Structure formats: structure tokens, C-alpha cells
Amino acid sequence: MSKHLTIAVDGPASSGKSTVAKAVANRLGLTYIDTGAMYRSITLYALQKNIDMEDEKAVAHLLNDVTIRFEEGSANQHVWLNHTEVTEAIRQEDVTRQVSLISSYRSVREKLVEQQRQMAESKDVIMDGRDIGTVVLPNATKKFFLKASAEERARRRTDEYKQKGIQVEYQQVLADIQARDQYDSNRAISPLKKPHDAIVIDSTTMTIDEVVEAIIQNIQKN
After folding, report:
1. What predicted TM-score, i.e. pTM, was given to this entire model?
2. Distance separating alpha carbons of residues 70 and 15, to the nearest angstrom
3. Which residues are annotated as a binding site for ATP?
4. What is the pLDDT of residues 111-164, one digit of tens each?
5. Which of 101, 104, 133, 145 could form a disulfide with 8 if both were Cys (CB 3.0 to 4.6 A apart)?
6. How far apart are CA 97 and CA 58, in angstroms?
7. Which DSSP letter does residue 126 get?
8. Residue ranges for the binding site?
9. CA-CA distances (angstroms) from residue 50 to 41, 54, 58, 59, 67?
10. Backbone angles phi and psi of 14, in degrees to 5
């Protein structure tokens, strides 16, 4: 068993996982591993190569050509796909619409889960996703499950898009989030579900700072 501190943060789309995990990492000096960015990078690469997204074998064929790495910047963590920075590109709407399908493929998950576990073996980490506490790090030191109403999550994502100058309709974002919840919770491989030993935090009416503080207090209790 690893002697390193491993924190798992799971939850549905736009529940605040990444924002919270980054903040906790900064406060406690942990390495933040954005697993969602890894799946998004594979999705972006498949889109760039004009691969049929419904063809798992074609997507799997791309995996050996992909290298994903994280680089700490002055303000945010940067994501690199092979030799190109894709921090912003992987957050575009076309990637968001396809990432659930790509991340449901066994070949993709096995490849990335192996990489994620290797990352957690040599350092103190906080990792967020949908199957961290159940599959990737089942023996994590601490597990948290963030949730929020679909309406609140849609509002957050709509605001996020608008801040980036991307015009979207709230109702469409809400429909996309509800569809993704359904898909992620019912996929055959590593479905989204709360780890039995996770601490649940409903962030619907909480600020990011309040969620971060709740998590840090719990980590430091023991």
C-alpha cells in the first residue's frame, strides 16, 4: 500500500470537482491530477484525426500515439497533448459533447487508469474524476463525492462558457448535463457512482471556498 497521501474526488459533470481539487492541492501542497483532462485529450485527438467516434477499435488504435502531460503554470495547470498545449482546446463544446462516449471505452479507460495509478505511486496527490474512489484509487487515504443539482451545475457551466466568450443556451446545457449524468451512471465500464466510504458534499448552495474548507478540515482531522 502506498505511503503517500492520496485524495479521491468524484462526482458528476460540473459539480466543481476540478476547481475544488486544484484549490485543495494548492493549500496542502499536493500534486493535482485532472483525469477528466486526460479523457478530453484523447477525445480532442480523435476529433482532430477525424476518427469515427462510435468506432472503439479506431479510437483504441490512436492510444499509442498519444502522450499526455501536466505542467504547472503561474496561475493554472497546463495540459499538453504530445507537443501541443491543449488546456483551452479540450474545454470546447465539441469535446464536451463527445468525451462521455470516448471515456466509456474499455481500451481507453484501461490505458489511462494505468497511467493515473502510476502518477499516484510516487507523490502525494489529489485526483478527480468519476471512478477515482471506486476504480483508480480504491484504497485512497480520503474519498469525497461532490454533488449539486443539475440546474445549478448547468448554471455554472453556462456562466463558464460565457466568461470564455462562448454563447450557449442554458436549457441546452441543462439537457446536455442531464444526458451525460444518465450516460455516465449507466455505462458498462466504470460507471459514475458514490464510493461506499466516501464523504458526500452537496455543493448546490455552497461556495467553492466553503467546499474547499470542508474537505481540508476533514483531511486534517486524522
Report:
1. 0.83
2. 22
3. 11-19
4. 999 989 988 988 899 999 888 999 999 999 999 999 999 999 999 999 988 988
5. 133
6. 19
7. E
8. 11-19
9. 14, 12, 10, 10, 18
10. 60, 30
